[in-house]
């Protein structure tokens, strides 16, 4: 019945300080030893998540940049989808970027428009770091994700401008209320999860998945056994009224639920 596990990171598998507890790591290691495939599905950069996976001590498929990149446990890239370069170049201009911390996710690089210490703190578990670049003059090539960070009211204005300019030619979502994330239109965690399951010869109906943000919508809406965190975004909860909620990420609730489902204790 439960043959594969997929989980988001921030607000879900990771604690409040954006690191994984020893209890969570031990739980995942035990499940992996039983032959259960693990999939990490997150908006974070691949290089960042690769470090988090190492800290967890597991071999997992990595769905990163909300599905714009997929890597297998041996770090082989099995899927990549970029935003059209011309669109990226346009999104880097002041019409969209002013008033926000702007980030670009490429295969091996994380570019930002300006220094931001708290972003580095979020990534301390992996050691991955950004490079400050002249984003308005970036050529737009090889970009899997554009991330705007600002207060929700300002991001709502950027989101409206993006829809007005590009319609549904982009996949636009939120990982956190202050993180507006943009990918190519065919990208989502749900689509990426299907790619991984096809490779593993497994099915959505047998997948257990956990998430808390709007970028988890497509994943939780398609798996057979979805779970929302107790700290999930209220908009996501409203969109998935039949999905059960578990405890909060700060209480290692994913690990506790997995121990219950797989009868580890």
Task: Explain what the structure shows.
With 265 residues, this protein is α/β, with parallel strands linked by helices. The model has no long low-confidence stretch (mean pLDDT 95). The relative contact order is 0.18. The longest helix is centred in the middle third of the chain and has 15 residues. It folds into 2 domains: 151 residues, HAD superfamily/HAD-like (Rossmann fold, 3-Layer(aba) Sandwich), CATH 3.40.50.1000; 99 residues, Hypothetical Protein, Haloacid Dehalogenase-like Hydrolase, Chain: A, domain 2 (2-Layer Sandwich). The protein has 11 helices and 13 strands. Strand 3 and strand 4 form a beta hairpin. A 7-stranded mixed beta sheet has the order 5-4-3-2-1-12-13, with helices on both faces. The chain is globular, with a radius of gyration of 18 Å. This is Cof-type HAD-IIB family hydrolase. Its cofactor is Mg(2+). Pfam families: Hydrolase_3.
Give the tags:
20% strand, alpha/beta, Rossmann fold, seven-stranded mixed sheet, six-stranded mixed sheet, 265 residues, Hypothetical Protein, Haloacid Dehalogenase-like Hydrolase, Chain: A, domain 2
């Amino acid at each position: 019945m439960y043959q594969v596990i997929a989980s988001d990171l921030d607000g879900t598998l990771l604690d409040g300080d954006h690191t994984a507890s020893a209890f969570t790591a031990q739980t995942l290691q035990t499940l992996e030893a039983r032959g259960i495939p693990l999939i990490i599905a997150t908006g974070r950069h691949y290089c960042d998540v690769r470090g988090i996976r190492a800290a967890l001590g597991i071999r997992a498929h990595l769905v990163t940049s909300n599905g714009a990149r997929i890597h297998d446990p041996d770090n082989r890239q099995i899927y990549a989808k970029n935003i059209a370069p011309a669109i990226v170049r346009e999104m880097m201009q002041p019409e969209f970027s002013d008033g926000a911390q702007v980030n670009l996710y490429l295969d091996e690089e994380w570019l930002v428009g300006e220094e931001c210490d708290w972003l580095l703190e979020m990534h301390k578990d992996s050691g991955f770091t950004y490079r400050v670049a002249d984003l308005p003059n970036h050529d737009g090539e090889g970009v899997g994700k554009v991330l705007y960070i600002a207060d929700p009211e300002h991001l709502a204005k950027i989101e409206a401008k993006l829809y007005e300019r590009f319609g549904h030619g982009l996949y636009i979502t939120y990982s956190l209320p202050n993180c507006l994330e943009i990918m190519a239109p065919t990208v989502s965690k749900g689509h990426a999860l299907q790619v991984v399951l096809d490779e593993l010869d497994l099915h959505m109906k047998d997948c257990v998945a956990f998430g808390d943000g709007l970028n988890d919508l497509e994943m939780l809406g398609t798996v057979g056994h979805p779970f929302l965190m107790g700290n999930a975004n209220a908009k996501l909860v409203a969109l998935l009224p039949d999905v059960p909620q578990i405890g909060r990420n700060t209480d290692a609730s994913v690990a506790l639920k997995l121990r219950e489902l797989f009868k580890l204790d």
